[in-house]
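Work Package 4 report. The design task specified in the project plan requires that, given a folded chain encoded as structure tokens, an amino acid be chosen for each position. We show below one input record used in the internal validation round.
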């Protein structure tokens, strides 16, 4: 069968990740709220995504650092649940995610003023970290669906992570890199929607890889039958 070649091939990238201390810390909710509003976006990103970056083969449910600290250090279980319940995949910019986190904490302080009086025990402040990424090219490219499926089997989880998570949220793309390329370069709009609607936060990176390959290979088979 013939595979339609893309207008432009997909170039796969990967990234190296470093974490840095910001020197900022909070011991109570008012301080946490103030810093969430002002820290660099890379810090918001780190505290909502680092579990996926460091433990990509384990549980697909990434814990939210803010939710964990609020529950464990401050004993604010209800607020912790609200913060943990923020659906990260619904946000396309770090700015909007930051605003949601801040609004949730601010609402708690307005409705439960006593929450502002709770302080973390000695030695348990919230230390703000930030994520620093270095983007590097890989030797892999793909110009057809067949090549795309083959490369998806070879790339590292760091490359997968970059194109699914980092490019969308940190670089403020409208969708992940794969869906964007499938739509704009192969005119595979249906497949692009399927890839876009995959919830990456409910899969490990390896299971996400399997889902992506399955979708692409199914489309390849459909094209072959149609011809």
């Amino acid at each position: 069968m013939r595979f339609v070649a893309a207008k432009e091939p997909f170039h796969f990238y990967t990234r190296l990740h470093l974490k840095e201390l910001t020197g900022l810390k909070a011991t109570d909710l008012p301080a946490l709220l103030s810093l969430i509003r002002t820290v660099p976006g890379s810090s918001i990103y780190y505290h909502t995504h680092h579990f996926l970056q460091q433990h990509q083969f384990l549980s697909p449910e990434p814990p939210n650092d803010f939710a964990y600290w609020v529950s464990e250090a401050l004993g604010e279980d209800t607020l912790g649940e609200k913060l943990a319940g923020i659906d990260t995949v619904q946000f396309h910019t770090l700015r909007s995610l930051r605003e949601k986190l801040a609004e949730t904490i601010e609402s708690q302080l307005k409705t439960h003023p006593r929450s502002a009086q709770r302080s973390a025990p000695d030695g348990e402040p919230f230390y703000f970290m930030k994520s620093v990424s270095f983007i590097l090219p890989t030797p892999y490219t793909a110009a057809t669906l067949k090549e795309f499926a083959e490369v998806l089997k070879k790339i590292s989880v760091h490359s997968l992570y970059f194109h699914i998570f980092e490019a969308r949220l940190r670089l403020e793309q409208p969708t992940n890199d794969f869906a964007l390329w499938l739509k704009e370069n192969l005119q595979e709009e249906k497949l692009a929607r399927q890839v876009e609607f995959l919830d990456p936060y409910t899969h490990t990176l390896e299971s996400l890889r399997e889902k992506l390959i399955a979708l692409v290979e199914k489309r390849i088979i459909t094209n072959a039958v149609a011809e």
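Confidence is low (pLDDT under 50) at residues 55-60. Validation will be extended to a larger panel in the next phase.
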